[in-house]
Automatic annotation (TrEMBL):
This is histidine kinase. The keyword rRNA processing does not apply. It is an enzyme of class 2 (transferase). Residues 88-125 form the PAS domain. The chain crosses the membrane at residues 12-33. One of its GO terms (molecular function) is ATP binding. Keywords: ATP-binding, Kinase, Membrane, Nucleotide-binding, Phosphoprotein, Transferase, Transmembrane, Transmembrane helix, Two-component regulatory system. InterPro entries: HATPase_C_sf (IPR036890), HATPase_dom (IPR003594), His_kinase_dom (IPR005467), HisK_dim/P_dom (IPR003661), HisK_dim/P_sf (IPR036097), PAS (IPR000014), PAS-like_dom_sf (IPR035965), Sig_transdc_His_kin-like_C (IPR004358). It comes from Koribacter versatilis (strain Ellin345). It comes from the Bacteria.
Amino acid sequence: MNLVANPTFFKFFMMLLGSVVIIAVGALAFRYLKQMMLQDVDMSSRPAGRESSGFAFHTYQGVISRLKEQEQELKSLREAASSRASASESLSVAVLTNLGSGVVVFNPAGIVQQANPAAREILGYASPTGLHTRDLMKGVHAVRTETGQTAVEVSSFLRAITDAPQHNQTTRFEVDYRTPGGVEKVLAITVSPIRSSVGAFLGSTCLITDRTQISSLARQMRVRENLASLGEMSAGIAHEFKNSLATISGYAQMLKGEPDETVSEFATRIQGTTENLTSVVTDFLNFARPQQLKREPIELRPVLEDCARETKVTLEFQNFPDRLVVNGDRTALRQVFSNLLRNAAEAARNNTPVRVTVRASATDTSVELSLHDNGTGIPEEALKNIFIPFFTTKPQGTGLGLALVHRIVTEHGGSIRAGNDLEGAVFTLSLPLQKPAAEKPATANPK
């Protein structure tokens, strides 16, 4: 068939061929575009995966880095806190160690947890840790309020330490205390509860101050005031007494000449009694009248040995310097030592030789002398009044011997205190030291 000769058929054929070509070209184009799109998707998906993994890795590294930094900061803070705690603890230990007052810490059960060196020295315990309150304070034999005016039961004082949480306040006491070695002391004790920041009871603490010397000085001051008042009244009273006694003695002397033997005997007794009373009044005047001291350098040991021979007392010198010289009145100091040694002899136990141990120590300005006897000691209730005039524990005593000793020592600018040790009574005196005379500088003789 001739396609050209039939125009209609030719036109139809060409249209069909064109459609086939267009479809083929479209299919090829679609396939090409599909491949291109798949390649684009593949190419775009690969870089996106790598970037996501890299982001996660860098994020993890950042978190780890920050954690390490925070750990280092915490470590630094922990070290700083530990350093501050260590410094604070060292400071607390240093303060407690060097504190002049004693500090004792008790747990809630009343057991000693800690005691600083001052507390151990004051209380006389080398290691009080672990002791109960009643064992640590067993040397307390008298308790007063802070002012020293009102007496308090010892049991109440101990309860104030163990029952501190019930009080919730600081309580202060003054106590008379005897160390395990027998040394008498006056202590001021402040009891306070210890609580945590949330109010829990952790125990109690005692602040202890040794007031022995202060208390002794206060007693001496009271005695001096009493002596001053006594001296002012003594002259008038003694004058009236002596006049009355002289009159009585005169009448008794006259009655002795009566023929009635009974009257004569009574007159003799009256005269003897008036003479005894006159002697007491004279002793009182000697005590109360101001005495002019004749000071000179006096070596103590020979004076003590002379007084010991007179009173028949054996002396034992311990830690006594070879030449100990004080500045004082020889006669007055002989009275002091004779009275003290006579007291030791009168206090001796039955059939026991009287022995007095003498110890001494010297500073730049004074001498401290202690006399320890082996007698019965001084009753506790008498210690505070032992130097008061007319106070005596002896049936036949006048109460003026130790009062005179006290007056002479104080007039010398010294002090005296009485106490007890394990063997007997102890009298401790402080007297001014005789300073050696300054050597005059040598001068050259003129030629």
